[in-house]
Fold each of these.
Amino acid sequence: MKNYLLTPGPTPLAPEVVAAMAQPILYHRAKEFEHLFEQIRIDLRYLYETAGDVLLFTSSGTGAMEAAVCNVLSPDQKALVVRGGKFGERWAELCQAYHVKLECIDVEWGESVEPAQVQRHLEQDTEIRAVFVQASETSTGVAHDVQAIGEIVRKFPQTLLVVDAITAMGVSELRTDAWGLDIVVSGSQKGLMLPPGLAFASVSEKAWSFVERAQLPRYYFDFRAEQAAQRKLQNAFTPAISLIMGLAVALQLIRREGLEHVIARHARLARMTRAAVRALGLELLAKRAPSAAVTAVWNPPGVEGKAIVRGLHDRFGITIAGGQGKLSGKIFRLAHLGYVEAGDILMGIAALETVLAQLGVAVTPGSGVAAAEAEFTRNDG
Ligand SMILES: Cc1ncc(COP(=O)(O)O)c(C=O)c1O
């Protein structure tokens, strides 16, 4: 059976990227690698919309999240975490692992944080040294308004804003410098159309001053060591060279399409998916601010746990994601990020309709596809 990937990471690989990764490996201290890395550093700045360094790490995205915690804080300092899903929980767990004092804004899963809540916490507790939030909370398919939060946090010189943009980078608008985002973390297996294994972190001027003072232990993920090495077009340790060769091409693909167009494509795919799901009588988990990366949908009444995920996989070779944490068995998630286009969405929705009908859900065949097509056409003319 032919296989299709509609998961929120890993995402499908662009063939050009696969071809680049299959090339004979380079030595990471050789001139050829330095040339490649020089262009990558420029292209990462373009992607991030920053004039500063975007550091690269060989790890999954969580590695860069951990780096963001241990490079800016000291033991017993306080962090404010927006906890509205599995990845918000991860920020809290990371802070706890490093004995950072924790204050959380618990957001109902499916809701987006009210930026004014962040402001209230910062005004009431002047000990907070960093705010941690997701730009796109992948477990619930909700976006948090990091632009508005950036406006707030920049008024507090003693506090940094750290954004997990793992499913937002190269997907939705994220203007690192203009929005005052101090550290922005991303990973390779999402909007970058690469396999897992690379993670990235931008570091603002404000954040560098925290890095110098931070007392938490760090070694592999030390921003200072990586900045020093990467400015010399090296990496502090042996990086995932083949992935970096793929990254060079992936970034070129984004440049060729143009970041604006990449963002517009994702927005359209997300709208198509939401229109289809609604037309099928299903309910979105996101109460507002749905993510452009992934659409989370409640299972229709009477449909058992993972039946939809299983049906798509077994009947059509389409892999989508189920729910995570407390949403396990309750939702399914259709992803639309990375190397994905409108045809993939139409195919996924057609298969979804078929599986729903087979599970006994009352759906009008073709209604989801028609809604997605209408959304596609509406934005095409
Ligand atoms: C928003 C978000 N944060 C963090 C992660 C964790 O990244 P990784 O699995 O690459 O460590 C993911 C992965 O799905 C994610 O979507």
Note: The chain has two domains: 4-8+259-378, 15-256.
Amino acid sequence: MSFLKRYLTEVKSKEKYYTEGHIMKNSITPGQISQNNLKLIYQYIYKNGPVSQQDIAFDLRLSRPTIKTKIEELESRGLIRKDGQIASDLAGRKAAAYSIDPEYRFAIGVEILKTQVKLLRVDLIGRSSCRTVLDLAYENSDLYVTALCGEINRFIDSLPSGKDRILGIGLSFPGLVNADATEILYGNILDCTGLNIATFRRHLSFPCRFLHDADAAADSELWTSPELTDFLYLNISVHLGASVIHNRKIVSGLHGYSATIEHIQIDPKGKLCYCGKRGCTETFCSLSALLDGDDEETFFRELRAGNAAVRKRWKKYLHYTALVINNMHLLYDTVFVLGGYMAVHLLEEDIEQLYDEISKMTPFPEVRDYIRISKMPKHSITIGAALPYIREFLEGELID
Ligand SMILES: [Zn+2]
């Protein structure tokens, strides 16, 4: 192709590009800039508050009139509020300081279990409140969904914050959930495989989604540990689960089966697992495997009091947990967070015992820096179930 021909072809294709409106798509309208500034200022106050208008103008490189207008808008809408005064210049003059209102919006976390349902609300800074536990046995039926949704609606009606502040409802299940959070992919514990969110949406006038309980718990760990980018979270609750976090995102894998370590077989002749196979990790390392029907609080009280029989069971439990952690660690050299219902009972001496066991198994020099106890040892699943809605709000467009 001659130079002239090539030149003309390029000009033509550029004309086509412009006339098809690509430029319009790429340009930003004044309205979008204004909306973006509002979001930037809100997020700045969220992270740094209480702050003065001067702080915001300096750090965000925005004009004082822009800041003033946006602060007025955020304050009149109730997203932020005055929060004392801070020195604004060298002369020590005071300026009004602003913080976000954490109760501007809430999300509801619901943890669905075999015989119980746990509910709470979470505010914009991740604080939970109004926790309620209901005795409601799971059934794979419309009757159950109707009863549960009735309870959720009653719970929301009873909240002092009012319905219009609810962003959405996260429903956590002991089961795997599909990528768009609408269907249970694998739910043998409750026999709820195939359950669809549409059955809940019929009764709930709020956005709602499903969550795998281990992922919900791992998300609450992400929330409380901003320094962690990669880790493997062990949800040691009634049942065992896990979640892999990479670059602060949950890795679900090709078919959604990533991190289902509970079904890695340890002993083919072992106890029957709910999946139908024998001797899965679930039958060694879950809380129900440890307790074997005994009361949780009594077990740990006896353990710490030095009861020899209970200590023996605990030692065996830690041995298998160390085996699993070591195997996983050989596959993925990362931080291991021990969470779920177990977290509240764990002591640093238990972690040392795990390292002692692992040192007998690993071929590598012993480094005792990668196992830690969850920083959110209580209600991590229920809180985590609400967090996706809180994150979406904070990263969203602040549209009412
Ligand atoms: Zn299994």
Note: The domain at 29-100 is CATH 1.10.10.10 (Arc Repressor Mutant, subunit A).
Amino acid sequence: MTTTATPYADPAALSAVEDARAALVADLGSDAGDVGDHLGHLVEGDGVVTHLFACTRKGYVGWRWSVTVAHVAGGPVTVDELVLIPGDEAIVAPAWVPYRERIKPGDLSPGDLLPVGDDDPRLVPTYSFGDDPLDADAKAQVRQVAQELGLGRVRTLSPEGLDLAAERWYDGDGGPTAPIAQAAPHHCHSCGFLVRINGHLAPYFGVCANGDANDDGRVVSMDHGCGAHSEVRLSKKQEPQPLPPPVVDTLTPDEFETL
Ligand code: SF4
């Protein structure tokens, strides 16, 4: 069983503030003026203490000089490490995110390529949908034969890929929670502009084909909707008000002079 003991706070190491500052100043040379007040210490281990000093260098707000000293019984205090580290207030670069994870919908420009990995869980080999009994070599052979014979797509959406797409579409602008759908008088399932799709998602989604609608050409859920629904009718008070009867002015310039 592992136990975590509190490290021994060696008094000599704790009180070696000026030794730590002197070592730091000596190391910085002409930049020694960048060392500010002593901010505190951290006990790193038995007899090992890190002293923290403010950094007053321009552009380094929140950074701290860190000087780690050590002491063993009977020996002198030694300086182990000098380093500039960011504090809680420091401006630091954001955490590294791999390129593949940084790409968002809409980032691709014409000519950009975004290959899908062989093990992408959203896709399965078309000839082994469901189970996946093929090893890597067999998959490569199946792919080559399928391409040579023109048998259609090598891979199709897996159940996971279908679920992810359905969730994304349902929660997005084409789903029932979009503001335009919330205010719609009717849903897409009864709209004449809805194009039905095939496959597993057919009961839940279609494609809007109304050129006057915001969602024209997009996937919409059956319970989405908008004001351009094919059966929308205006109520009496929403219809344009009829114009008053025209007034025919029969007065001629001569008659005007006699008035
Ligand atoms: S016009 Fe509106 S209601 Fe009709 S399918 Fe398109 S989004 Fe749905």
Note: The chain has a mean pLDDT of 87.
